[in-house]
Design goal:
Number of strands: 5
CATH class: Alpha Beta
Largest sheet: 5 strands, parallel
Shape: globular
CATH architecture: 3-Layer(aba) Sandwich
Structural class: alpha/beta
Radius of gyration: 19 Å
Number of helices: 4
Distance between the termini: 56 Å
Strand content: 5-15%
Order of helices and strands: EEEHHHEHE
Low-confidence stretches: none
Length: about 150
């Protein structure tokens, strides 16, 4: 990162972590094997009770049925002392010019806690963006001459 540049937050799925250009990767998962080069930050992940409630009651059900409850519960968890301290640490690093990536297992950020963290940080003046891989455009099919 060059001096005098504003830092920001990138959010993404773990599957895209190797494509990210950043100073640090924070793996914000409840559990699981930490990817190489990442820092595991469980204080920015859903708690065990909230994660288990999702797995046991909501997983596979339409998001509109459970997402409002999940969102409210997760935002409440982020008001804990541990959650606030981690958010403050992120804020400090970004204000020092660092680019920090927050990654988790969710493929779609729309119904994911990483989006909720990004929204919290944006309210504090931190710029965030969700990493989406570039779309590869389909090219015209070329006729391959036959060898026979």
């Amino acid at each position: 990162m060059q001096d005098n540049q504003q830092g920001y937050i990138i959010t993404s799925s773990l599957a895209m972590a190797d494509k990210l250009t950043c100073d640090e990767i924070w793996q914000i998962t409840f559990s699981g094997q930490v990817i190489k080069g990442a820092r595991w930050v469980p204080n920015l992940a859903p708690s065990a009770p909230l994660f288990n409630k999702y797995r046991l009651l909501w997983q596979g059900r339409p998001e509109e049925e459970w997402w409002p409850q999940y969102e409210a519960a997760f935002k409440e968890e982020m008001t804990s002392h541990a959650g606030i301290n981690q958010l403050r640490q992120l804020w400090k690093l970004v204000n020092e010019g660092k680019v920090i990536a927050l990654v988790c297992f969710c493929a779609d950020h729309k119904y994911c806690h990483r989006r909720l963290i990004a929204e919290i940080l944006e309210k504090s003046g931190i710029r965030t963006k969700e990493y989406r891989p570039p779309v590869i455009e389909k090219t015209a099919v070329l006729d391959q001459p036959s060898l026979f």
